[in-house]
Amino acid sequence: MLVVQLLKGAAKHAGSRPQCSVERLFTAARGISSSSRQSSASGRSQCSACTDTDLPKVLITGWFLTDLSSCFTLRRRIGKTNVILSDIRKPPNHVYHNGPFIFSDILDYKNLREIVVNNNISWLVHYSAVLSAVGENNVALAKEVNITGLHNILDIATEHGLRVFVPSTIGAFGPSSPRDPTPELCVQRPRTIYGVSKVHAELMGEYYHHRYGLDFRCLRYPGIISADSQPGGGTTDYAVQIFHAAVKTGQFECNLRGDTRLPMMYIDDCLRATLEFLEAPAETLVNRTYNINAMSFTPHDLTQEIQKFLPDLKVTYNVDPVRQAIADGWPMALEDSAARRDWGWNHEYDLPELVQTMVTHITMGNQVAQAY
């Protein structure tokens, strides 16, 4: 009965919202259609940066850290064979069958260069990274992957004239940064190796742009919430884990204080923002690094919203001092007026829409799994 109610609510909600910019990202059971909104808004369904005969060839590094929907959406948008996924780990079979996958170690400069040349790569989307909480437990690895790997990416992209996208994060700010909201240009003194490496990436990318003309693009993401991705060692992971626990067991132990307010974004908005930013004409970009924002909430806020659908959810708190210290130095909200002005960014999901969609998707997924 819960599923029927959720689907009815989602379908009603979908009909009341403006259409977004990318093709359908998730199944109809999710209740949210993303495909027609871009067409109705702009009258185009192809990449704006290229023609039918000159589509970009894209290499995505570290696909394990992405939501697979982002990779598959990009493939639907510019062609399956034009988007190559890469990592140092073997992917599941459905990834192999969906399109090109290759082994790529970003620390192996020669191998990465060969991949770019042999596959005629024109866009490089660089997700490979060691995340915040994991990085504090292995600083040496975080320095090697997040800094040395980035240098390889920038040098190869510059040498071959690539458009390169590197995600940044709220972790690029620190306790001395203004927190509510955090502007794009302000003091950045992060206290994690992850945050330090992201500030380094932003500055190196901007330097390469001004010094060598590299088409470098960077978005500072808030915490990203998706039902399809697994937690990867990030401080905002609780906001994904709580949904799975709420549906499966009705109990969740949160490792942050209940009043810890952080900026968050639903994956659909994240995918759309990334694609729109990648496709934006270079001359419209005043900056090379932009904040993007959607919503901000605390674990307590999120719990209350989930309980509207799952009233039996019980949440306890066992604060992890490392993660809490990281969160206490991060923004509560990001000021993103430049992105909205320069390339038309506008989020679509606030907290009620996020919770309804996540609970529906996870509930449906569990029922399908139980059927088999």
Automatic annotation (TrEMBL):
<dbReference type="Pfam" id="PF01370">
    <property type="entry name" value="Epimerase"/>
</dbReference>
<dbReference type="GO" id="GO:0008743">
    <property type="term" value="F:L-threonine 3-dehydrogenase activity"/>
</dbReference>
<dbReference type="InterPro" id="IPR001509">
    <property type="entry name" value="Epimerase_deHydtase"/>
</dbReference>
<comment type="similarity">
    <text>Belongs to the NAD(P)-dependent epimerase/dehydratase family.</text>
</comment>
<comment type="function">
    <text>Catalyzes the NAD(+)-dependent oxidation of L-threonine to 2-amino-3-ketobutyrate, mediating L-threonine catabolism.</text>
</comment>
<dbReference type="GO" id="GO:0006567">
    <property type="term" value="P:L-threonine catabolic process"/>
</dbReference>
<comment type="pathway">
    <text>Amino-acid degradation; L-threonine degradation via oxydo-reductase pathway; glycine from L-threonine: step 1/2.</text>
</comment>
<feature type="domain" description="NAD-dependent epimerase/dehydratase">
    <location>
        <begin position="95"/>
        <end position="292"/>
    </location>
</feature>
<dbReference type="InterPro" id="IPR051225">
    <property type="entry name" value="NAD(P)_epim/dehydratase"/>
</dbReference>
<dbReference type="InterPro" id="IPR036291">
    <property type="entry name" value="NAD(P)-bd_dom_sf"/>
</dbReference>
<protein>
    <recommendedName>
        <fullName>L-threonine 3-dehydrogenase, mitochondrial</fullName>
        <ecNumber>1.1.1.103</ecNumber>
    </recommendedName>
</protein>
